[in-house]
């Protein structure tokens, strides 16, 4: 039996990682075969790529190099985790996937959208999430929630993060059947209950 692929998306500080972990715990507690992973950094090689991507650097970090690193991480991820576990009938939960690349490198960085869609397709080998939860919050609220030292991407100026949020919402508008936008300013519990309700309505759980 083929598994189910669920992804969580959102701007920095939206709370998507918290909800991904909660869903993983909920499904595991029910005895459902589930794996929680993330991008970048879902594989051993991916962890090294993640470190390069998120570390501050004295060198100029060209947007195209950034894009290719994310796609390289994705291809490792698809081959080593996503495909194998879907084939075993698992529910695969990923904290970020193709929509993040489109939003960050496309809408926020300004790289060609068609090019990114093509590269996403190549790197993911055509795999698309069955369902995606976009946890949406205002940019300033997201920034306030980050209490630790910000990484290279989080440190971008506010305009970058505004473009990022707009990008995510545009992607969601174009893919209404797959992407569910959830108000990230609601309580953690209320958000989680909405996620469960959507999954039940889709006969996923």
From TrEMBL:
Catalytic activity, reaction form: dTMP + ATP = dTDP + ADP
This protein's record includes keyword Lipid metabolism: no
Stored InterPro entries: P-loop_NTPase, Thymidylate_kin-like_dom, Thymidylate_kin_CS, Thymidylate_kinase
Keyword Transferase: yes
Domain Thymidylate kinase-like: 8-195
Superkingdom of this protein's organism: Bacteria
Class in the EC hierarchy, top level: transferase
Keywords: ATP-binding, Kinase, Nucleotide biosynthesis, Nucleotide-binding, Transferase
GO molecular-function terms, A-Z: dTMP kinase activity
Job of this protein: Phosphorylation of dTMP to form dTDP in both de novo and salvage pathways of dTTP synthesis.
Annotated family: Belongs to the thymidylate kinase family.
Protein name: Thymidylate kinase
Gene name of this polypeptide: tmk
């Amino acid at each position: 039996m083929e598994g189910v692929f669920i992804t969580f998306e959102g701007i920095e500080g939206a709370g998507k990682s918290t909800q991904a972990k909660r869903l993983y715990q909920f499904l595991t507690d029910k005895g459902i075969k589930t794996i929680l992973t993330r991008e970048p950094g879902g594989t051993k090689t991916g962890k090294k790529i993640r470190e390069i991507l998120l570390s501050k650097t004295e060198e100029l970090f060209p947007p195209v190099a950034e894009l290719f690193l994310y796609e390289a991480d994705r291809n490792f991820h698809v081959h080593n985790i996503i495909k194998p576990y879907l084939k075993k009938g698992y529910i695969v939960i990923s904290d970020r996937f193709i929509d993040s690349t489109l939003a960050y490198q496309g809408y926020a960085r300004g790289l060609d959208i068609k090019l990114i869609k093509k590269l996403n397709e190549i790197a993911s080998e055509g795999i698309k999430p069955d369902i995606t939860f976009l946890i949406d919050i205002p940019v300033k609220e997201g920034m306030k929630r980050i209490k630790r030292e910000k990484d290279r991407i989080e440190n971008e100026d506010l305009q970058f993060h505004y473009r990022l949020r707009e990008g995510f919402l545009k992607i969601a508008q174009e893919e209404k059947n797959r992407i569910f936008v959830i108000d990230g300013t609601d309580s953690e519990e209320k958000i989680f209950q909405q996620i469960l309700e959507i999954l039940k309505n889709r006969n996923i759980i």
